[in-house]
Amino acid sequence: MRVEKASSTKIKNTKQRELILNELRKLMSHPTAEELYKIVVKKNPKIGLCTIYRNLETFYKQGLVGKICTKPVRYDGDMSKHSHIRCTSCGKIGDIFFNVPINPVEIQKLGYKLQGYKIEITGLCSSCIKKQKREE
Fold first, then answer.
1. How far is CA 70 from CA 2, 8, 31, 75, 112, in A?
2. Could you count the other beta carbons within 10 Å of the beta carbon of residue 65?
3. Claim to verify: residue 58 and residue 99 sit in the same structural domain
4. Nearest to 76 by CA among 35, 41, 116, 40
5. What global pTM score does this model have?
6. How far is CA 130 from the centre of its chain?
7. Domain count, the chain
8. Which of 37, 63, 92, 121 is the most buried (most CB within 10 A)?
């Protein structure tokens, strides 16, 4: 799982963009474009799935949302510094807020300048643990 963030430049604000971005920022579930569409279309039935895809990509390129490079791609409306934990069974993604000591000297020895980092943590979510116990 790779999380990407792009640089920020100004985009034209429209009611559709505002609705899509506001709905994404309300969610903690890291939705796919299709999942977000099902929510947004209830508030604006005229909005199309292509509009959701196009605007999510625009938001990502502008640095307004994060992109979690899973299959399918998921989006993150929380741009604060955090990492993710992914359930290896159902694919659910959660946010984790903690600091991990990274040694910039070791990064420099490899010939890199540290710009940031994301850590992928995997495990089983509580729902999958319960399901697994029922099946045993």
1. 7, 23, 11, 10, 26
2. 23
3. no
4. 35
5. 0.79
6. 26
7. 2
8. 37
Rounded to whole angstroms, the Cα distance separating 39 from 111 reads: 45
Of the candidates 88, 80, 90, 89, the residue with the CA atom closest to the CA atom of residue 118:
80
* pLDDT tens digits along 86-121: 999 999 999 998 877 888 899 999 999 888 777 889
Of 93, 90, 92, which Cα lies nearest the Cα of 78?
A: 93
Q: Could you tell me the two tokens for 119?
A: 């850590």
Query: What is the span of the domain harbouring residue 54?
Result: 3-76
11 and 70 in a single domain? The answer is yes
Neighbours of 63 (CB within 10 A): 13
